[in-house]
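@channel anyone free to eyeball this complex?
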Amino acid sequence: MTDQSRPGRKRSEQSRQAILVATLELAAEAGYGALTVEGIAARSGVGKQTIYRWWPSKADVLLDALATKADLQVPIPDEGSFRADLALFLDRTYALGTKSQVADTLRALMAQAQIDPEFGKRFREDFLFRRRDALGEIVERARERAELPAGVGPGTVIDVVFGTLWYRLLATREPIGPEMAGELVALLAPTSG
Amino acid sequence: MTDQSRPGRKRSEQSRQAILVATLELAAEAGYGALTVEGIAARSGVGKQTIYRWWPSKADVLLDALATKADLQVPIPDEGSFRADLALFLDRTYALGTKSQVADTLRALMAQAQIDPEFGKRFREDFLFRRRDALGEIVERARERAELPAGVGPGTVIDVVFGTLWYRLLATREPIGPEMAGELVALLAPTSG
Amino acid sequence: MTDQSRPGRKRSEQSRQAILVATLELAAEAGYGALTVEGIAARSGVGKQTIYRWWPSKADVLLDALATKADLQVPIPDEGSFRADLALFLDRTYALGTKSQVADTLRALMAQAQIDPEFGKRFREDFLFRRRDALGEIVERARERAELPAGVGPGTVIDVVFGTLWYRLLATREPIGPEMAGELVALLAPTSG
Amino acid sequence: MTDQSRPGRKRSEQSRQAILVATLELAAEAGYGALTVEGIAARSGVGKQTIYRWWPSKADVLLDALATKADLQVPIPDEGSFRADLALFLDRTYALGTKSQVADTLRALMAQAQIDPEFGKRFREDFLFRRRDALGEIVERARERAELPAGVGPGTVIDVVFGTLWYRLLATREPIGPEMAGELVALLAPTSG
DNA sequence: TATTAAGCGAGACGGTACGTCATGTCTTTAG
DNA sequence: CTAAAGACATGACGTACCGTCTCGCTTAATA
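replying in thread with the prediction:
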C-alpha cells in the first residue's frame, strides 16, 4: 500500500539480511570498536552505498540488526500485583542480558549514543523511551493500587530499575541476576500493606 | 623512591598542563566525537609524540584532565546517620553534575570505556570503583547500624544509587536534582525503625 | 584486453595530470630533498591515497612525470656512419641536459635508485636499460661495419658514453656540451680506417 | 696551534670509533636507506648530541667511516708510460670496487650528494676532486709525453675514466673488472706511436 | 685544591612526513 | 532506480626520525 509501484529495481531483501548478519558477526568477533562500514560491506558482499542509502550510521545498522534478531520487545506483564509484575519484568530482562552478544551490543549502542548526538536522539526515542513506557504501564498500575514505596514517585521507580540494570551492564559488567532481581523487588515493592 | 633521579631531560610540566587544558577546551567546544590527538597537539603547541609518550589514548588524557581540574574526590561524609550521609553524598554529587562540562566529559568517558576495552579497565579501576568504595564506606556503616532497607544488601544499595545517577546522565540526560535526591533517600534510608 | 569494462569509477586522468604537474613544480622549486607525498597531494588537490594507489613511491611519480613531460625517447639516428650517428645522439642528449630541470630530476632519480633498491630495479629496467638499448643499436651497426676502435667491445663503448654523460651530470655538474661531444666522437669513432 | 689547550673534557676517541664502526655495520646490514642517526647512536651506545656535535649529517659520518677504514687514497703510479700508469690505476681501483661494502657505501654517498646540496659540496671537494687530481697527474704526464689519443683533452680523459667507473657502479652495478680495464687502456692509451 | 668549561649518555621536546585506514561521496557498468 | 565495484578528497591515526634542548655526570685545564 505504501510504495506499491515505483519504477526501478526493488530494494534487495537479500542484501539487507546479509548486512545485518555481517554486522552482528563482526561486532561479536572483534568488538564494536572494530566495526566499520567498509568491513560490513566487504563481509556481506555489498556496496558501501547500499548501506549508506538505508541507514544513517553504522550504529543504526547495529540497532536494526539487534532488533531484527533478538526480540527486545519484552511483553508487559499483568499479574495482578506490582510485586509479581516487577519480578516477571526483571526475570525476562535478565534472560536477555544473559546472552552476552545482546549485552555487548547494548553497551556499544549506549556508548555510541553518547558520542554521536544524532544517533543518541534516535536511540533514546526508538529504544530507551519505549522500554521506559513498557515499565511505565506496570508502575502506573502500581501507583493506582498504591503499591509504590512511600515518598517515591513513578518516574523515580523507573529510573531506579533501568538505572540499576544499565549500571551493572556498563560499569560493573555483571548483568543482573536472580538475587539482584529479588533485592530490587524487595526494595521497590515491599510486602507490608 | 621509584625513579628519583634518572638521566635525561625531565618531563615538562608546562606541556602537561597545556595538553590538559587544550583537551578540556576542545571537548567542551566541539564534543568528544571531534576530539583528536592531532587537535590537542596543535592547540597546545606540543608534538603528538609527547601525548603518546605519557597517555595511552585520548580518553586517558581526558580522564586525567578531568581529574586534575574538577576535584572528583567527593569526601566521605559521616553525619551519624545513613539518611544524612546519603543526602549529603547526593547533594555533593548533584553539584558536580550541574556543571555541564563535567557531565559531558563523564558521558564521553563512560562511552569510550565501552568501546575501548583497555581504557574501560583503567576507567573502572581508576574512577568508577573508587567512587563505589567511597559510597561503600557510608553503606557499610549503615549496615552495622542496621539502617539499610530490609532484604537489600550493601552492594545493591550502591548499584541503585550509582545506577540511577548514571542512567539519568546517559539516558534521560537530566542529571539528578534535589527532588530526585530526596526520593532516593526516602527509598533507601526510610525513617521508620 | 586487460580491463576493458569493469564496474566502478574510472581512474581520473585529471588527478593524474595534476599530480605529475605538481610533482615537477615542487621538485623544481625546492629540490628533490623537499619533495614529499604530502606536498604533492596538497599542491595537486588530491588525496594521498590516490598517489599511493597508482605509484609505489614518490620517485616513481617523478619518473613518470619526467617521462610524460619531457620526451626522453631520443630517436635512434641512422646516418650511415658511426661517427655521424654518435654525434647526433650526443647532440640530442646535450639538448636534454641543457634544461636544468631535466638534469636535476635525472640526478635525483639516479640518487634515489641507489638508496631505494626497489625503485632502483624499476629505474634501471624502465629507463637506464632502454637508453642503453637505443645506443646499443647504433653501436651494433658500427661493429658490423668495423667502425669501433680496436680492442674495444660494444658494451664498453656504451659504458664510456653513458658513463661520461652521467659522471658530468652527477660529479662535476657540468652537463655535456658540444666540445665534449666532439672529443667523445674523436675518441670512440676515429676517422682513420 | 688550533686548539692546543682548552679547559673541559676532551673528545672521546672511544665514542668516535664506536660511532664509525656502528655506522658501517648498520649501512652494511640494512642499507643506507635504513641508516639513521638514532640507530647509530643506539648501536654505538652514544648520545645523539655527540654525533651532531662532530658531523654535519649522517652522510658525513659515513664518509668519515669509509675514509678511516678503507684507505681510499690510491697512490699515484709512475711507471714511465701512460699505458702502464693507467693500467695500474685501474687495477688498484678495481681492487677497491671488489669489496662490496666499499662499493655500496660509495653508491650511497654519491646518491646523498645529489639530494643534499651541502653534503654534495663537501663530497665533491673532499673526495671526488681529490681522486680527479690523482688521475690528473698521470694524465698530465701523458699529455707532456704526447701519449693521449688525438683530439682528446686531458679533462675528457679523466671524465671518461671516472665516468665509466661510476656508471658501472651506479647503473649496471657491475663494478669494473680486468677485461673492462684492459679495454679502457686500449681505448685511452693506444700502443701505436 | 677549587673552579670552570667542555664532552658525554640519556632522554624529553616541537616538528614533519610517513604509509594506512575509514569516512562519506561520486562515477561506472550491470540488472 | 538499485546494486556491486571501486576511485575519489578528506582527515586522523600511530610511528619513525629529525635536530634541539635539558639533565646529571665525568674529565681536564686553569686559577
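from a first look: Chain D touches chain C at residues 31-33, 107-108, 110-117, 124, 128, 149-153, 156, 159-160, 162-168, 170-173, 180, 182-184, 186-188, 190 (CB under 8 Å).
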